[in-house]
Design a protein that fits this description.
The chain has 783 residues and is of the alpha+beta class. Helix content is 38%, strand content 17%.
Amino acid sequence: MYELPETLGRDIENLGTLTDKFIKGEIGTAEFKVGRVPMGIYEQRKDGVYMVRIRTTGGIITPGQLIEIINIAKRHGSDLLHITTRQEIQIQNISIESTGAILRELKKIGLSSKGGGGNTVRNILVATTSGITDIESFDPTPHAEAITTKLIAETDSFTLPRKLKIAFSNNEDDTDFAAINDIGFIAKIKNGQRGFKLYVGGSVASKPTVGWVFADFIPEEDIFAVAGAVKKLFSEHGNRKNKHKARIRHIFYRLGAEEVKRLFDEYFKEEKKTAPKFVPDRYIEKINPSCNGNISSEPVDKDFLTWKNRYATAQKQYGLYSVVVPFIHGNINIGDERFLTQFQIFLRFLEFIGDDTVRFSVQQNIILRNIPESFLFQTYSHIHSINPEIKYPLLTNNIVSCTGADTCRLGICLSKGLAAAIRRKLINEGAGLDNIPEVRLQISGCPNSCGQQVWADLGFSGKALRNSRLYPAYQVYAGASRGKSPALAETLGSLNAHDVPEFTQKVLEDFSEKKEKYGNFKNYLESEGRSFIKGYLDAHKEIPDFSEDKNYYYDWGSENLFSVAERGVGECSAGIFDMIDIDKATIEKLEKQLAEAEDDGSKGRILRSIVFHASRMLLVTRGAEPNSEEETFELFRKLFIDEGLVDNGFINIIEQAKAGNTDSLITSREKVIELSNDIDELYKNMDDSLQFKNVVKENNNPVEKKTIEPASAFKYLRGVACPMNFVQTKIMLSGMKPDQLLEILLDDGQPIANVPGSVRNEGHEVLSQEMHDGYWKVLIKKK
């Protein structure tokens, strides 16, 4: 189990303060979002309804902890827990007022939501067979836990350009998710030494790719240096301006693999000088189930034996089994009291067997481990009491779906509705499913890859198509390869949502009949499957007109005609700089309103709003947090006009807007629009680190921007919270010459704990830290 960071208590209290300010209306939605998302708190599709995403490295959780999570959720009004495709668990459907108490209660049981979202190191994946299969090189679980402990305690893990995903595989013949994460570790033994094959830059999101192999073998002792090197590479070369190009793979696309590898080697060499070594004996724990198998088995029957063949697998440890416990869509419905009672009894039973019995899987199920064979019948009885659906083949209960448009603000299609429809079709008509339990069916409700559809044997991503009107459809993918030569699934075409269940059933039936000939789905696809699939897609390219059959124009699970009108702004990229986009979009909306306004009163108010949002739009890049409209105008003048980034000819309209003189703004309408355009142009000309070009304007004449000349500079940062205090420090240093000194004043607590470390991680030297009357004086040397 990972260790909680020492700063967690302060992080929770700071979030509580921010939440109180949001509830009171003292801060806006954007600022609140910046603070809550890195702590794993997301707003769901319904406004005002939230969830907490709990970090469980490799899906590891004890039965006792899961019982306590249920108790916490129930106390705070939740009716639903959700297992994610990153082996985490979410407490859903809660109020924002409950989040602080939930985080404090999780801390008491050794769990945290820190890093559950935003531009952070996300939950680390580990193959669920690790430690229990005889085909693994070794169990990488302790390595994943150790890296989690280290990274979530480091401040710069929370100021990344975007999210950083890490995965561990336990053998080279099944790279699986390690091949498609930002950092992938594949367990390997070379000359008797344990280590890892290293992939970097993989992803299944937009412009997906398998990662690049950076090392065929790295000793296990160097895993901390690897993680630190990739993190620094990402932080210093990731695209902070464009969130759509902010993942590690885009560094490869921009610089080329050879240059990225060269940069990594430099960072890795430096990290090895200071990073601690991974010491196996410090982390590895022996598996000691409390039950020794001496208890007699219950009588068995045909249904039990069928279940055992489908859902139970013998471990490498003699007499022990792993078992799949399916949860449709990953949902644990704790609002159902009958289910809840049986589920809690089941967890107490598992608690009796031992702590190392429960893990969450990327298929959104629970995988039991270390179950003595003599307890299998009791295990089956418990599972049957909470989910009678185990009477069906494993494949029908292993369909992966993102949450889709039910709750996600990015959702286009109801992916859970489609998953349910496919499942019904396979249960009713699927032939030979027990012959192909390994097949992965994965669905996303939009082109994003939360459902990991490009890493499936058969995958689907939601889209909208149109004939005379809009209808739901899916992009079809097939044939991902997860072995020694990993490859993404092929894109084979589009299909209307109505026909996807039948299509899936026919493809799987055809593969099942031919599996003995081809061995796996990839071989089937390359031989006969591709033509079979394309033939079906071509035959169903056209759909009936709305007047002939309305069913094609309804999504699965919806009683309303298909629409994308409620598609909203997602939460996943909630970094500091999302606030820029809010003001930018508002300005565009206001300019449209201005063109339609008829009376002078409306025009004046709109013009003042344009000046306000233009003034505020880029303040965050200077580390400024205005607390009022008046302060916004003052900071804009000081940081942009006085610094020469914006022409001083705009001072007059800034002062008019500050004074609320809307009549004067009407006569300066062209100047207001010019300011808006200049701010937009300034935004477009920022580099990837959000620094502006090295020119300033004086009366519209470009001149060279002067760097700080004095031998030292000063910044008062008392009262400035993390991470904004570090942002402001970084901005000050960016304008200084090498070897110049910067003195900053910081509060005690989180600021002094975080900022100096982040400064060092940027490559600068912290010369001294001195306590003065309850605050800290820090001297930094620019490198």
